[in-house]
Fold this sequence. Notes:
Blueprint: H1 42-51, H2 67-70, H3 91-94, H4 102-106, E1 109-110, E2 143-146, E3 154-157, H5 167-172, H6 176-184, E4 186-189, H7 193-196, E5 231-233, E6 235-237, E7 244-246, E8 253-258, E9 267-269, H8 272-278
Parallel strand pairs: 1-2
Antiparallel strand pairs: 2-3, 4-5, 4-8, 6-7, 8-9
Amino acid sequence: MGCEGDMAARPHLGRSGALLSGSADGQIVLPVFKEQPHVLLPQQQYKLTSHFDPDETSGGFAHGKDPFLVHHNGVDIYGIPKRSAIPGIDHHEFHLPPHIPDAERESGASRFYQWHFDGSLYNILPPRVGCLLAVKTPKGSDVTVRWDDGTGTEMPIAPGATAIVAGSRALALLDDETRKIRVNSHIEYAPHAFVWMSTAHSTRLGHLLETEGLEKAPDELLPWSSDKECIYPMVWTNPKTGEQSLQVHGQGAFKLYLKNNTDGPEEVVSDLKEVRAFMPK
């Protein structure tokens, strides 16, 4: 299994889902600097984030080794040389049509862009800490986010907001049988997952890819090797508190290793349509 990284400096999640070395302190820390742009500049944001993980060795940006995520027309975060900005993707290119009509969008209708956890999903462990800085956010009335998955579900949210789900709560909401499978199962992510998915369509909800055969073929990707592919547990364990959280990246999922219990037989699911059918269960 790839993505082992530097075991002395970084935490490593093995097939058991247990943390083998390294840990955070188990506390939830949420510094908020609201409406204070002079307090937290981009340079200071990086410094603040690095304090949470002083042993980090990848250069301060976990995606920094993937050219697809590092460079876009030479754009860097202002004031921090060589720390690149990841551009947005137009929803007309990325999401499955039909799209929300312009008139409805102007009236406040919206959708989620992409549900994910931070990580390159290839050759690099996910970051231990995430820090979000909104330099400028839209102002105005709440928008109405539509699931557009046939359920009619909607929710009001501030324009430009980022929705965050507690993985521990998501796990607790599962029925016992589904939870047992999740706790004992793993996901293999596609090599160079973000390049691989770049030609495919997201679902309208933003949690999966549509199975249309539009993903890039293996020989169209940057050079890759199987020993650098990432296989992660579906459920991650806090090393200090023992609390478990569901954490999966539905759009990058390439293969499933499903088990009902630790010592039971393992079912390998490699058909992408079946992989994606399992993910929302």
